[in-house]
Amino acid sequence: MQDTVAPAAQQVIEAKPGWHLAPARFGKPGSQADALVPCPDFCDENHVQDWTQHVVDLDHWGPTNADWDADSILNPGARLLALSARLYLDPNSSDPRMSGASVRVDDETVDAFWTPEMTEQAADGLIAFAAQLRHLARQARAFNERTGQAADTGARPWQSLTRNDLVSRPIPFLLKVFGVGVVEADVESVALRGEPGSMELHVLPDVPQCLREDLARRALLAWFDARVGGDV
Ligand SMILES: [Zn+2]
Q: One short Pfam family name for this protein (predicted)?
């Protein structure tokens, strides 16, 4: 392990094609020094700001220009699944696949480092996965259309509903679209709690079904007027 900047200083050589010389900071806080180091042209790291203690810890990163994430019906807006990819190079690795440019893929749990060939293989696999996803979407939509399930209008189907829909559409449909569960509770008046996708309608146990439907519609209209207003 090298603790001094001398080895870095010795690396000050003429930049090869595809490389340039960039300033880098090494050492421990209170005992740091800067040196010029070879840096691949794709690297956008600031090696002074993001200093390393040892020369062997220096590695190079490209910008993240491949990024995908998705939320869920149950976690709208959350970065629930995520993948990002960027170029990577570790000049001190004994593995030539790492000391040359590789692709680092991060699922926010683990990092995977891929050669260009492995990356192309993964890209082919993801294209096949995307086709399978489309097939599943078609199957789900066909089932929902056949069985009259909630409108398949995306992750937030309630956003496509107008105030007129809330007045005229059947209550079971609206409860499904808004993800409303009916909870019998000792409440003074009907109460709609939660956010679309996960709502609870609190009603007294002795309220008859037809009145519950009327109360549910009124509660959804009140929610609509308060949250959406005349925008839709
Ligand atoms: Zn660099």
A: DUF6907
